[in-house]
């Protein structure tokens, strides 16, 4: 996940988990705990991976997750298909584990397509404590032939997995449409994945980021599929 909430290895937050930290030019300057990094706005690295597939109509479908309602930041928002922080000493190759932990998808780094690096800053409050989250994210894509209902979701992190038409999502991110509809699967109270359809999705339902990021990712996914 992006921001304050995603612990390495999934599950509950470990405030003492250590990150490698960097200066404004992305030069390593040491390590800090998760709590220190977010309290003082120290730059650290994360991993993003977006999944997409070709629909039966030949159009690109972009998969994205709905965050658990129990998350302390951005609960119940739509977000990157799978993502997470890099702990101290880790590389992006290590972070690929997030796909297996969150989605049950086992792939290697070589199977992913790099989409570049994205820098973002976010400020807010989590459980009444102010945080400043500064991340340098390595962004990747993976083309799959699987629909959302076929994945195994990590219940602590995800409430569901959805997909929507890429062109529709682009229009949403560009401000050309107020809403798109998505299909997918959501976890019920017993943790069973249940198919859902025609779910309304608005821009405000996504984790707030520079829309240029979303646009760049969606356009890249369309070229890949």
UniProtKB/TrEMBL annotation:
InterPro entries: NUDIX_hydrolase-like_dom_sf, NUDIX_hydrolase_dom. It comes from the Bacteria. CDD domains: NUDIX_Hydrolase (cd04692). Residues 42-219 form the Nudix hydrolase domain. This is NUDIX domain-containing protein.
